[in-house]
Structure formats: structure tokens, C-alpha cells
Design goal:
The structure is a homodimer. By secondary structure, chain A is mostly helical. Chain A has ten helices and three strands, in the order αβααββααααααα. A three-stranded antiparallel beta sheet of chain A has the order 1-3-2. Chain A binds a DNA duplex (30 and 30 nucleotides) through α1 and α3.
DNA sequence: GTATTGTCTTTTGTATACACTTTGTGCACA
DNA sequence: TGTGCACAAAGTGTATACAAAAGACAATAC
């Protein structure tokens, strides 16, 4: 099963990038990675090409692969774009979700809840990522999904400390995020697009506040609502 | 210069896909293509992986690469998403464009004009593609660009007959599109976001009407304006 | 006549060797 | 001491050979 090793390399690299085990901008050495995953350089290079296409890594000719960087302008762009796309995806997800996708989303939410209960911040972040990717799948819009997937890469990396309670009140925020997920599920189940969008924007505000507090001491008041309704 | 052959394969495949020389859903044979471009299978496979990441082709395990298909549900999704993203991109492009990018856009527009004057439908379609990709670059938002690029792939393929006048009044539509491009350029130059968005939506309506007439005899009235302002 | 199985062909996936590019280091020389 | 060049080392890019999987087709069993 050499095919499996390649798939492992692919998913494990994603995992390590999302959890910042591989830091943004760090070099990825082909020979090291190929040895690590037990495949030759050829399939590993194909994995890197694929990851580059999905926005996880950046390739430079004759200079190898680097983990996608996260600089300050990218951050500004992220805050500008995320609420708009999240809202659009939520609306479509409420309209188009299938029962099968809903079952899957509930399963992911269970994983998420368990990870939080176990205070496993890494698994919680990955489950949160999977939750929002699952909503993207329900939207059934490959164009917007391409955008969403890239947003989620950076969102998960930015919020890596989110599910790691520091101050006592942090646990409250985490529980709030968990509860919002539950409400979002019920909105999707009811095909209630308006409610799904509203909940999504609430969820975004919670996450945004937390990220801004982490990134800079005094958060600037960003106009997420305006951005979402601007068009 | 073996590096160059790989680059040629990459750009020529894109060209052939956008111009429908390679039809949606058609199989891409690795050995045939590698012989054609004078490279071995290894680099050609990497090109295909890259094209897959960008949405030009679809890879299936053990079953090779196919040109990205365009089915009816995809078409519906396209009409749903395009105006929203085009408008968002136009707004950002007007706000963030650099003078260098503007010079580039004008050069592309010159190419576009010449292609139309020469009645070269293929080159006109490719120049039109480059024009809108250039606007995407001005927006300077990698998240939305990922979405835009995929929309443009399908838009260029759908509108392949646009720049091929059939009836006498078609030439008028083509000239109108050309003029709209000029106006969009001046809006970007003036950093006039509102005007850029309005012109973009006009431009979209023109293109949409033409595509719908081609795809189905009697076009259904789609709510593009609503879609654009829905969020 | 149909279905199933076994073999043959075609195509994709992987490993490895080698070529080329980039980059770092040391030495000569101004 | 600083600059430039040559060479070495490390890492990326490509070709080819081989392995494995999928598909085609015919023979055989029912």
C-alpha cells in the first residue's frame, strides 16, 4: 500500500501546517519529508504541488516549498473577506444542505465537543476547522469553497490559541462557540437561511474579537457588519 | 532549457482548456502530452497536479486527468456566484490598484481591442480573460482571487462564442463590452469604487444575457442584482 | 445466451540515478 | 580588510525503468 503513504503525507502535512507545528514561512525539505513519510521524492513533490494549489504551501522555482506565510497585509485582507464569505456560505448551506451532510456535521460537532471537554486545544482547533469545512461542503458551491478553504487555513492558524483557555473567562468564550455551533446546526436543519447567516456573523464576531486581542493589545473596531452587507 | 518546456506545457494547456480546444470532461493522456511538449512524464504530471489545484483539470486516482467539466448544476452555481464576487473584486481593485497594475491593464485592453478589430474570437476571449484576471490582481486579495480565477475559467469557456459575431447586432454588443472595459479602467484610475462596481454589474448583465441566449433559447430572468446585494 | 474468470494490454504510480541551479565557503588578489 | 572568483556542497528538476492498478477481451462454465 504505497498509495496510502502518499495520502498520509498529504493529510499529515495539512495537520502540521494548521496546528503550526510547521510554522508559516518555514522551509519544507523534499528529502527529509520523503524519508519521514517513507515515499520517494517523486510522489512527495506531487503532494507539495497539490498543497500549493490549495494554498497550504508556496513553491518557488529552484528554491523549494515553504509553508504559506501569514504577514500583516494578509491579516488585514483576512478580516476584510472572512465575514462576507462566511455569510454567503452559511446562506447557501442552509438552502442546499442534504440530510447526509447534516449527519456528518453533527458527527464533527461531537468530536469538537469531546476535544473541548478533554481540554485538547489542538484537536479542538482541527475539529473546528472540519466543522466549518463541512458547512462549506453543504453550500455546494465550488467557487466560494475555493475561497472559504483558504480563509479557513489562515483562520485556524490565527486562532490556534483560541481553544487553550488562559484566563478563567476564556472557558466561557469556548462554551459560547460550542453553543453557537449547535444553533447553527439547527438553523441548517430547518433550512433557515436568515438565522444561519445571523448566527454565523455572531460566531465570527466572537472569533474576531479573540484573534484581535491576541494579535494586538487594543483591537481596532473593524466594520464586519458593513463588510458583510456592503455588496 | 528544459524548464521552459514545462512552463510551455502549463500555459499551453491553460490556453487549450480556456479556448475549448480541449473540451470539458475530455481525458488527458500523460504519455501523449509529455511527448507533445517534449518533457518526460514526471514534470508533466506535476503540471497536471498544479492545474488541478487551480481548477482547470480534475484528477482521479488511477484514472488520470480530465479537463474540468461544466455541467448544469455548475452553471447555476456560476450565475449565482459571479456577480457577487465580480462586484467585490471591482470595489477592492478601485481601492487598491497600483499605477503599475493600471498600466498593465491598459496594455491588456490594447491587445483585446486589436483582437476584436482583427475579428480573432479566440484571442479576444483570452485577452478578455486576462483583463479580468488583471482586475483580480489589482484587488490584491488572495482569498477572493482563488474564487475569481475559478469563475473566470468557466466564464471564458461559457462565453467562447461571445466574440464571434453571428447576427449583425452582435458587433454592437462586442463594441459595448469594449467600451465598458474602457470605462472600468477610468473608474479604477480614479479610485472610484462605486462607479467600478456599477460598471462591473452592467458588464456582467451584458455577458450574462449573451450566455443565457446561447445556453438556452428563452433565458429565465435570474436575479443578478439581488444576488449581488443579497448579503 | 449470459455471467464469470483469467490473462493480456494499457495506463498510472513510484523509485532511483543523474543533471542543473543555487548557495555557501575559502582562497587569491587588490 | 574588502572584493571577486572558483569550487564544493546541498537541494531542486528531469528522465527512465520498473511496479501496480485498471480496463479490455476472450474462453469457459452454467
Amino acid at each position: 500500500m504505497p498509495q496510502k503513504a502518499k495520502e498520509t503525507a498529504y493529510s499529515d502535512l495539512i495537520r502540521r501546517i494548521l496546528t503550526l507545528v510547521l510554522e508559516p514561512g518555514s522551509d519544507l525539505d523534499e528529502v527529509t519529508l520523503s524519508a519521514e513519510y517513507g515515499v520517494s521524492r517523486t510522489p512527495l513533490r506531487e503532494v507539495l504541488q497539490r498543497l500549493a494549489g490549495e494554498g497550504y504551501v508556496q513553491l518557488t522555482s529552484h528554491r523549494g516549498a515553504k509553508v504559506a506565510s501569514m504577514d500583516v497585509p494578509a491579516l488585514r485582507t483576512f478580516f476584510q473577506t472572512a465575514p462576507m464569505i462566511y455569510a454567503a456560505i452559511a446562506r447557501l448551506a442552509a438552502e442546499n444542505r442534504t440530510s447526509h451532510e447534516l449527519v456528518n456535521l453533527k458527527a464533527v460537532q461531537d468530536t469538537f465537543r469531546k476535544a473541548i471537554r478533554d481540554a485538547n486545544a489542538t484537536e479542538a482547533a482541527l475539529a473546528n476547522h472540519a466543522f466549518h469545512a463541512g458547512i462549506g461542503a453543504m453550500a455546494n458551491n465550488p467557487y466560494l469553497s475555493a475561497c472559504l478553504d483558504r480563509l479557513l487555513i489562515d483562520h485556524t492558524r490565527l486562532g490556534r490559541t483560541f481553544y487553550q483557555p488562559r484566563a478563567p473567562q476564556d472557558q466561557g468564550l469556548i462554551d459560547q462557540a460550542l453553543a453557537q455551533h449547535e444553533e447553527m446546526i439547527s438553523a441548517f436543519e430547518a433550512h433557515n437561511a436568515e438565522r444561519a447567516v445571523a448566527l454565523t456573523l455572531e460566531h465570527w464576531d466572537l472569533s474576531r474579537d479573540r484573534i484581535e486581542r491576541f494579535v494586538r493589545p487594543d483591537p481596532l473596531p473593524l466594520d464586519t457588519k458593513d463588510a458583510a452587507y456592503a455588496l
